[in-house]
Design brief:
610 residues, alpha/beta, Glucose Oxidase, domain 1, eight-stranded mixed β-sheet, four-stranded parallel β-sheet, 14 strands, 37% helix, Dihydro-acid_dehy_C, phosphogluconate dehydratase activity, 4 iron, 4 sulfur cluster binding
């Protein structure tokens, strides 16, 4: 690509060099798997095949004699998660769409799908990060039947898209794409929702008032409309070319949404090994696609969770990316979007203002993404700079707008909201961590203050309620890493810390836990690695040695996360006993074998040697 920004090229080249052996080993495996399973009738004995299509009804004969490609559907349907509730109706029409072109489709398997919004601050959140590994394993179980020529992935939310992608990549000899369902309609204004949350944190709003406010925000089928991890997932799948172009933010149960799903099925059938347009997933997800995902995340101010997810799903494709790579990309990529919680409007407003199509065109025109990636769309990345529309009931694409429809929400490369992507690497004698500056006012990018150390977010809430934090303070919440308790999100800390900040105090958070795309305005060093809990060799993370009153300096400007205290010679603070209940004890194996946050926080990838 001749106009590629040299900074983007440099990071991509470094990733490719670092990944050379692991990437080649992955591609060699996928080539062998593709050759072995090119003809399922030659691989599977008749009894196995008969079991596989016994319940396929009118599709039996086509599957039995390979008269067309058979698409395996991996679904994360449940009707507790609003984003996934529409998927309950997807398989039957997808089978009809397949028959239109001489193909077939079967639900190959289902994966669990938990909602961080439901489990936030509750015991179940300690299962959240490792649910990604479970989802990947469940997808692999479904695809292990070896009955399929392509894969349709039905998933949207936080750990679900990364988990499905990790699982599908281990079957990367097959074509695959994601089929989204779209966001719910906008609810109450986001500032009003934030206002009520802070009032509740201060004891000035009742639980009934809070519940009424939240119910007006999350109120119907579809993805939650703030720009958190779920919607960042959708953006990344577009930037990686794994969606039908423009599919991310079209509302559920609309004619356009149905036609995009039909197009996804038809495209999967066309990309099979037996045709003349074979596009296996393994060849689509390479170092350039991974860089595009990271650039999109930075340009749009997406979820910090992806500082963990991108390294994880990249590893599944043999690509090794770290936080230094992401920090350097951030310095090259301007912030083009202000979507709640980094702005006032939600993803529906973002989509209406020009959305991903406008962002892709801006990034491409400035040489900030790789245009030469292979995508599921025949026209390549250029197709993702267009918008899907229906004309005379036929799906087609039109160019994205020349200028944003809302300049408070969408900027251009020539006139961005910030000169960089707002994700900084901070490091020092307390470890390495991520700091999302795009959600924080610049005057708060450096905080130095005595720390107050906690082992749970509940203890923080009690100290806040007792007035113990009414001062300049850096709140440290440790023993929240993958090995300690599964690395839950600590999003419920944002309202009380936001209150302290609004009272005029200098406040920051330092934690080896996660926040999210909804973390908001409080400066935070998150995903601190190494985590506080000792690793398998008995090495404790620096946070385990901090004590109340130690002065901590956090600076996104300097890239600093350090204490002036002398930690040498101190004993580590005793780690809490792992909690039981809500199934947490069943995940002990995942915790014990988990890798560090910068490597993706996975036990499955560590044990697989990836």
């Amino acid at each position: 690509m001749s106009n590629l920004d040299p900074r983007i090229a440099r990071v991509t080249e470094r990733i490719a060099a670092r990944s050379r052996d692991s990437r080649q080993a992955y591609l060699d495996l996928m080539d062998r798997e593709g050759d072995r399973h090119a003809d399922r009738n030659a691989v599977l004995p008749c009894s196995n095949l008969a079991h596989g299509f016994a319940a396929a009804g009118e599709d039996k004969e086509s599957i039995a004699f390979r008269r067309g490609p058979n698409i395996g559907i991996i679904t994360a349907y449940n009707d507790t998660i609003s984003a996934h509730q529409p998927y309950g109706r997807y398989p039957e029409p997808m089978k009809l769409y397949a028959r239109e072109i001489g193909a077939t489709a079967q639900v190959a398997g289902a994966t669990p799908a938990m909602c961080d919004g439901v489990t936030q601050g509750a015991d179940g959140m300690e299962l959240s990060l490792f649910s990604r590994d479970v989802i990947a394993l469940a997808a692999a179980v479904g695809l292990s039947h070896a009955m399929y020529d392509a894969v349709a992935l039905l998933g949207i939310c936080d750990k679900i898209v990364p988990g499905l992608l990790i699982g599908a990549l281990r079957f990367g000899h097959l074509p695959a794409l994601f089929v989204p369902s779209g966001p719910m309609p906008s609810g109450i204004a986001n500032k009003e929702k934030q206002r009520v949350r802070q009032l509740y944190a201060e004891g000035k709003a009742t639980r009934d008032e809070l519940l009424e406010s939240e119910s007006k925000s999350y109120h119907s089928p579809g993805t939650c409309t703030f720009y958190g991890t779920a919607n960042s997932n959708q953006m990344m799948m577009e930037l990686m070319g794994l969606h039908i172009p423009g599919a991310a933010f079209v509302p559920p149960d609309t004619p356009l949404r149905r036609e995009l799903t039909r197009a996804a099925v038809h495209r999967l059938a066309a990309m099979g090994r037996d045709g003349n347009d074979y596009r296996p997933l393994a060849r689509l997800v390479d170092e350039k696609a991974i860089v595009n995902a990271a650039v999109g995340l930075l340009a749009t101010g997406g979820s910090t969770n992806h500082a963990i997810h991108i390294p994880a799903f990249a590893r599944a494709a043999g690509v090794l990316i770290d936080w230094q790579d992401m920090a350097e990309l951030s310095r090259a990529v301007p912030l083009l979007c202000r979507v709640y919680p980094n702005g006032s409007g939600d993803v529906n407003h973002f989509h209406a203002a020009g959305g991903i199509g406008f962002v892709v065109r801006e990034l491409s025109g400035a040489g900030l993404i790789h245009d030469d990636v292979v995508t599921v769309s025949e026209g390549g990345m250029g197709d993702y700079a267009k918008e899907p529309v229906l004309k005379d009931e036929k799906l087609c694409w039109t160019p994205s707008p020349d200028s944003p429809g809302d300049e408070a929400m969408l900027g251009s490369v020539a006139k961005p909201f910030m000169a960089d992507g707002g994700m900084r690497l901070v490091e020092g004698n307390l470890g390495r961590a991520c700091f999302k500056t795009s959600a924080v006012e610049p005057e708060r990018w450096t905080i130095e203050a005595p720390c107050r150390v906690f082992e749970t977010q509940e203890a923080v809430a009690r100290a806040f309620a007792a007035g113990e934090l009414d001062r300049d303070v850096i709140v440290v919440v440790r023993f929240q890493g993958p090995r300690a308790n599964g690395m839950p999100e600590l999003h419920k800390l944002t309202p009380p810390l936001g209150v302290l900040q609004d009272r005029g105090y200098k406040v920051a958070l330092v934690t080896d836990g996660r926040m999210s795309g909804a973390s908001g305005k409080v400066p935070a060093a998150i995903h601190v690695t190494p985590e506080a809990l000792a690793d398998a060799d008995g090495n404790w993370g620096p946070l385990a040695f901090l004590r109340d009153g130690d002065v901590v300096r956090l600076s996104a400007e300097e890239g600093t996360l350090a204490t002036t205290a002398d930690l040498a010679g101190r004993e580590p603070f005793p780690a809490p006993v792992p909690a039981q209940g809500m199934g947490r004890e069943l995940f002990a194996m995942f915790r014990a074998n988990a890798g560090g946050a910068e490597q993706g926080g996975s036990s499955m990838l560590e044990l697989a040697g990836l």
